[in-house]
Amino acid sequence: MKLKTTILAGTALALLGSSAFAADMTIVSWGGAYSASQNNAYHKPYMAAHPDVTIINDESSSEAVAKLRAMNEAGNVTWDLVDVEAADAIRLCDEGLAEEIDADTALAPAPDGTKASEDFGDMIVSECFIPQIVFSTTFGYRTDKVPEGVEPPSGACDVFDLAKYPGKRALNKRPIANMEWALLCDGVAYEDVYDTLETDEGVARAFAKLDTIKDDTIWWSASAEPVQLLADGEVFMASAYNGRLFSLIEEQKQPVGMAWNWQMFDLDGWIVPTGLSDERKAAVMDYLFFATDTQRLADQAKYISYGPARASSAPLVGKHETLGIDMAPHMPTDPNNAKNTFVNNYSWWADYRDDLDAKFQAWLAK
Amino acid sequence: MSDTATEPVLTTRDGRPLKASLAKALRREKLRALVLIAPLLIFVLLTFVAPIVDMLFRSVENSIVADTLPQTVVALKDWDPASDQAPDEAVFAALASDLKVAVKNKTHTRLGSRLNYEKTGISSLFRKTGRSIKKMNEPPYKEQFLKADKKWGDVSTWQTLKQYSPRYTDGYFLSSIDAKRTADGIQMKPENEQIYLLLFGRTLMLSIAITLACLLLGYPIAFLLAQLPLRTSNLLMILVLLPFWTSLLVRTSAWKVLLQQQGVINDFLVWIGLIADANRLVMINNQTGTIIAMTHILLPFMILPLYSVMKTISPTYVRAAKSLGATDFRAFWKVYFPQSVPGIGAGAVLVFILSIGYYITPELVGGTSGIFISNRIAYHISSSLNWGLAAALGTMLLAAVMILFVVYDKIVGIDNVKLG
């Protein structure tokens, strides 16, 4: 009898304990160096301040959109916070899979008291999206394969110049960015790019430009591929995410240079899935308040060369944690790198993505 | 019971007809068998058949329009899509009241992304209108909608809305064969958007090529395995199984290292002077890459059924043929080969069906000319969220496999397939 009571009491206590203290938080991100930077800048200090919270890293951001929809349909959302690109955040928001968040009430103001919505400014591209970093899709090239007596490539338009820079290229296997570059380098003015792409002639013109290098292009789909192709010397030039190129050049010391001209800015940030219990939502909002404040965003730049999304974080960006080099010149937002940039027009792509993707894939398959 | 006595019907002891009694006994027997297999049956139904049926059902399901805009759909019944006029005030009033509910439930943007698959621009139309709907309280609504976005005055917007208002649609299936329904009936899409028929054809051709390559490479190996003494053949068998146990991704990446232009094979060929440094072979990121990598990955699925069938072929038949004067080749071709056909059938069906649904290897080594239809299905599932189209493409693939299976049964006969 006594034993039974003890067991019962123990079980009850264990159940009570698990509901009161087991605050597991599943945070979904991209893995690799990027997850490591989040772990160092956000997760570790947060868990140190909240010993009762355990953060579980899930590296499935690349299939987050489909998985969130499946979870939502099954009525069992197991993720608390998801790191996605801005375009996906818009899609998830449209589908009702992401929670709308008011930046001013949910997020910390800047140290000088500026409201969060002003500190993030234009980066808040959707009601559901909490920006975190600015990254860019830009170009890397093999410094040892630049022909003699030719200045090294400076940006996107050099990709189309096969006479000057012979060799294979690697581009992303999707229309976004490639279509814009094709038009920009074909002489369309920056302001007119999206208007031109809305017309059939504009699309045909972009494809005609891409046709000039189609036979010499390897199309990548995973973000590790272009960097590997550069490291192997398979291609002369490749479009890639600037953080991946940074680690190839500075950490792995490969003979690769950056060509920043017409880099395409893109945003990455958090969304909170809909369908969380109040308790879980409160926990995740607390984490979010901490992880997106000015200092935390600046801290992340110590580990990876992506620019913090808050204006107030930029002056706080310092040196790389292990390499000890100054991080500011490696940021896509650095004035030397950002002479000519273009910003992904999210709302335009939300409309045209399905249509242009069909045309792009049909063009690729031919 | 007096009737039974006069008619010649066999009865059991209790007077019931023997036939009925037997049927009853058999029924009980069947029921018992059913109860025994019930757990497995329910498991298969719940975890395999039901999800597939549910997924296939999405290829025709389209209740989102009627659920989100119920009054508009009813009001649109009287509007003629062939007329060059946008609908009148009554339809806009219905739309206003539907949208107010939809915005409150946040379902209007979901509808927008659904209809954007059919007509570019509807996604932002709904998002934009959703923001200004709160201000629309007084009729006339038509002007206010046109002020919010002029696309509401566009006939094609309403044609799309009306065309996709029924709860079931053939639109996804038409899309999956590069066609669409227009005001003048079903038409092919413009040539620069046609892709799926091409991909279906390519998937089929490459799968056949991979199956043939597996057969050509696998038959001699299986033959060798079956002939050698057990000790040697076991060692060889491990060599066959070792890659089989290795992760798919590792093997695919290994092929990348081997086949790329700065890779091992090209380096070797340049080193021995067979090819010039400037003319390195392109063996990856095209169909060649897909065929080589997938043949390697699927080879064990050909060798294993072939081996287990060949193992059962008695060597005495070939010996008998030779003793009757047949040459080695004739003895093999007339006596041995026909007996190994069931193994070829099993291996070929296995390899073909596995390869037709492959997507990870083609994605990694196929470039643009070596990708399969499954790569597009994966894209629509995970990236564009157009699950309806993905389901339609999946259904087509399933149907194609089943038709080929029936054809195979007619030509070779499914009884002729043996796994061991």
TrEMBL record, chain A:
It comes from the Bacteria. SUPFAM superfamilies: Periplasmic binding protein-like II. Residues 1-22 form the signal peptide. The keyword Signal applies. Keywords: Periplasm, Signal. The keyword Membrane does not apply. This is Extracellular solute-binding protein. It comes from Roseibium algae. The lineage of its organism: Bacteria, Pseudomonadati, Pseudomonadota, Alphaproteobacteria, Hyphomicrobiales.
TrEMBL record, chain B:
Pfam families: BPD_transp_1 (PF00528). Residues 200-408 form the ABC transmembrane type-1 domain. Keywords: Cell membrane, Membrane, Transmembrane, Transmembrane helix, Transport. The chain crosses the membrane at residues 31-53, 195-222, 234-252, 289-309, 340-360, 387-408. Coiled coil: none annotated. Belongs to the binding-protein-dependent transport system permease family. CysTW subfamily. PANTHER family: ABC TRANSPORTER PERMEASE PROTEIN, INNER MEMBRANE ABC TRANSPORTER PERMEASE PROTEIN YDCU-RELATED-RELATED. InterPro entries: MetI-like, MetI-like_sf. It is found in: Cell membrane. It comes from Roseibium algae. This is ABC transporter permease. PROSITE patterns: ABC_TM1. It is a multi-pass membrane protein.
